[in-house]
């Protein structure tokens, strides 16, 4: 668990990183991955080490954050392809279920390959939607933590899981959808960079 003294700096990082991801996540995707990897790694390290009065938790959080940032940045292309492959396999299984039979292994393999290729081809849109809504959620968490909401502690389980909001904060669903939609629209309106000739 994150010690109370680090709640405000963590909230500032979540708010700033969330807004960055929400509105320019596709253009700065590697930076966004680094921020999210750092936050995730630091939270995992803080959970493992636990609060203490020594400097061990902050060192563990910095080390965990650095490892998390490197892992997410390096896993970028593999992650996009794996998401597409999994989606392709799920679609093949859904079609087979409608036909009341098990899918043939060759059909599953073809579905995973097609899904991976499609995800890579449409990665701009996948990244925009993921960063807009992921950033919106992160910014909301950081914002309500900064204003001192006791329900919104950075290490609580709901922080990373937007389908479960704390009691009394049901408005976050609407805020998440609105802010994520605005972020996606802003990112989609920006044309992708093209190489100069």
Task: Describe the secondary structure blueprint for this structure.
Elements: H1 7-24, H2 29-49, H3 56-74, H4 76-98, H5 105-121, H6 123-146, H7 171-189
Short overview:
The protein is an all-alpha fold and 197 residues long. The chain is built from seven helices and no strands.
Description:
The protein is mainly alpha-helical and 197 residues long. It has one domain (4-80, 123-189). The chain is 72% helix and 0% strand. The chain contains 7 helices and no strands. It has helices at residues 7-24, 29-49, 56-74, 76-98, 105-121, 123-146, 171-189.
Key words describing this protein structure:
7 helices; 0% strand; mainly alpha; single chain
- Rg (C-alpha, Å): 19 Å
Overall outline: globular
| Tally of discrete structural domains | 1
SS field, number of helical segments: 7
Overall mean pLDDT score? 79
Structural class determined from secondary elements: mainly alpha
The CA-CA distance between the termini, in Å, is 52 Å
- Biggest β-sheet: count, sense, barrel? none
One letter per element, helices H and strands E, the order comes to HHHHHHH
Got a strand count?
A: 0
Portion in strands: under 5%
Residue stretches low in confidence (pLDDT < 50, at least 5 long) are: none
Give helix % range: over 70%
């Amino acid at each position: 668990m994150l010690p109370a003294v680090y709640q405000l700096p963590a909230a500032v990082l979540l708010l700033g990183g969330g807004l960055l991801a929400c509105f320019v996540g596709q253009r700065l995707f590697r930076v966004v991955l680094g921020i999210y990897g750092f936050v995730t790694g630091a939270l995992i390290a803080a959970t493992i080490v636990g609060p203490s009065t020594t400097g061990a938790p902050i060192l563990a959080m910095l080390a965990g954050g650095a490892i998390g940032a490197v892992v997410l940045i390096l896993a970028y292309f593999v992650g996009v392809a794996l998401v597409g492959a999994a989606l392709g396999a799920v679609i093949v299984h859904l079609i087979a279920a409608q036909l009341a039979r098990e899918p043939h292994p060759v059909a599953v393999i073809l579905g995973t390959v097609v899904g991976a290729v499609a995800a890579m081809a449409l990665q701009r849109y996948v990244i925009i939607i993921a960063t807009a809504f992921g950033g919106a959620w992160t910014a909301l968490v950081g914002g309500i933590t900064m204003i001192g909401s006791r329900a919104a502690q950075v290490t609580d389980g709901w922080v990373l899981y937007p389908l479960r909001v704390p009691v009394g904060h049901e408005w976050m669903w609407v805020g998440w959808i609105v802010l994520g939609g605005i972020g996606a629209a802003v990112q989609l309106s920006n044309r992708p960079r093209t190489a100069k000739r």
